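Input chain follows. Return structure tokens only.
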Amino acid sequence: MSALAMKHYLDFEKPIVELQRKLDDLKKHPETHSMGISFEEEIEQIERKIEETRRAIFTDLSSWERVQLARHPKRPFALDYFRLAFTGFSEIHGDRLYSDDNAMVGGFAELEGQKVMVIGTQKGRETKENIKRNFGSAHPEGYRKALRLMRMAEKFGLPIISLIDTAGAYPGVGAEERHIAEAIAVNLREMMLFEVPSIAIVIGEGGSGGALGIGVTDRVLILENAYYSVISPEGCAAILWKDRSAAPRAAEALKITARQLFELGLVDQVVPEPLGGAHNDIEATAASVRKLLVKQLDDLRKLSTSERLRLRYDKYRAFGHFIEKQASAA
């Protein structure tokens, strides 16, 4: 963990941070220890302990801890992937109806030589950028911009790739006045009908209709420490337990982690992250995303348009099935 990462550590990372500080202190004093044990040996021991502790912590994370990782301020955002996983990104602005929404970004790009249309929800890292990006929560014009880009992709026969990272669509008065629900609903309908291949990948938070507004695609991927949910854990806790502090309990009940979603058949593939999260090696994470997107896109191109549309329809019609377990007799 770098000094920069130490400034943004999560509660469950404290054991690693404390060991890292001890290591940094030792490296400042390379002289021999009074007990006859050189600092080099002690440094090696602490480095091994750090690796063991990291592995122990990050291979057994709770649902709430993964939600915290999905929200990490140093986690790569959509524009980071547009720069690292794609080439030649050229942003397109505005919905040609009202304004340009900076929480929704998109444009033309290339994926390993293949021309594609990329769209994503974009957060900010610092206060000024978060205000500009509205913390990644798009207004109606953001979803209408996304639809404009998707229709452009359909016109030119370009695959659509969506990167999802939002706590949800913006719920303010202005958004309601400009019909946020209608904007998302139209996107849901239209995305079911596009004839070009489409892929969505949840890179951080995947919250409610704000995520679905660009997420109805042939394939849905999710990063290992991302989550996808109908409601945030805090929102669920406030409704069910009247207490937002019950968010960890809600996160577990909602079954929103990547592995749980894959087991339920709600996502098609889990994208592995470096140990400790995507922010620990952004380039490696982007390379994994690029590799899997290329593979999924190649598979989709092998299908005819009619077959792809049928499979897309069947995919979403199958969601929501469940089996009731009979209560055992007393």
